[in-house]
Amino acid sequence: MKQSQYIFPTKIIFSFFLYSIEHCIKEIQSEVNKQCPDVQLQTTTDCFEWLNNYNCDSLKSPSIPHGDLIKFLKTLQDLLKNEQNQEEMVLDLLWDISCQSSVSLPSTLSGTSFHFLSRTSLHSVEDHSSMDIKSIWDDIRLHLRRFLVSRLQSHNEINNSQQKILLKNQCIQQLLFLYPESEVTIKYQNIQSKLLAKLLQNCFSSYSRESNLDIMADGYQGTMLKLYSMIKEDFNTLHEILAPSSTVKFIKETYLDTLTEEMAKFLENFCEPQFKESAVRVIKTSKSSSRHRGAVHALG
Question: What is the domain partition of the chain in residue ranges?
Answer without folding.
Answer: 4-54, 62-115+128-179, 195-300
